[in-house]
Amino acid sequence: MKYILNSSFMARKVSNDKYLIGSTLDKQFEIELDPSARMLLALFGKACTVEEALKQSEGALREDEVREIVKWAIDETILVPDFEEQRLGQSAYHPIYDRQIRLFEELSPGFGFEAQQKLTNSKVVLLGVGGTGSYILYTLAAMGTGFIRAVDFDEVQLSNLSRQILYNRADVGKLKIDCARERIRQLNPDLNYEFVNKKIETEQDIEELIKGFDFCILSADTPRKKIKMMANNVSVRLGIPYIYGGSLVDSVGVGPLVIPGKTKDFSHVAPELDDTEDAFTEAFNSSFVSTLIDPYNALAASFTALECVKYLTGFSEPTLINKIMIINLKNYETTMADI
What we know:
This is Molybdopterin/thiamine biosynthesis adenylyltransferase. The protein is α/β, with parallel strands linked by helices.
């Protein structure tokens, strides 16, 4: 097997024989290497086998010393299996996904290509492609989610352009779902998509849209005050995992990630309320306008999509099971609320 220096690590010289090595500030460690050990490890700047490194060292180190240093470097993940050699023959590999497969592999050694294959085999339905949803759709498509059904009914408005990533001025007045179809297929034409122009009004509507899918993401806000519980009821009834993500005024809220039969659901967050409209509630709900800026949508979408990908691939444990994350965007104070 060929090994190579860990491409996610960087090295900084501290003193003559001491070096600081790592990927981030909290994942750095100091090592002491004599000139012979440094010379040996530098040979792995290009992928090679231990035998090739031994030959290139030209007798500067004994074979047992070479093998001891290499074993130590592998144990410390300074040396890792050559990714280029590993990817040969892997159907899940595509240059587009190179960096994320490397991340999957680093976080779960031996699992990187399997994680990508799981994502490629997944079917996700996204309810709403507005502020948060447009970012989520972009992310899921860019990462190679095999089949995506996107649902929306609205038209692009000028006020959308400062906070919804998929649309531009030429799209104003057009259906969001039609514009999203064009942009996303340009981004990644290798996937399967379905773009549905549909206004959700009942639980039956949601059931028809999400049945048979592996995961549901809710980023829609209509019907006002009802959509979260409606989506919850249907997802639990059908046994389809789902998550909500969104932002409003000065905060971002994501979660909980609900796995029916295994976790609590949204009914543990908000009790069933009387949803009958009267003149008072109608006056409020009909005049509702979301007030936010683009970074809020991007932040909410990133966490929502990440939890979805964690669940589908298994490269890392989802964080928001039985939890809601609320980020106060005035001071970045983050609350992880148990449900």
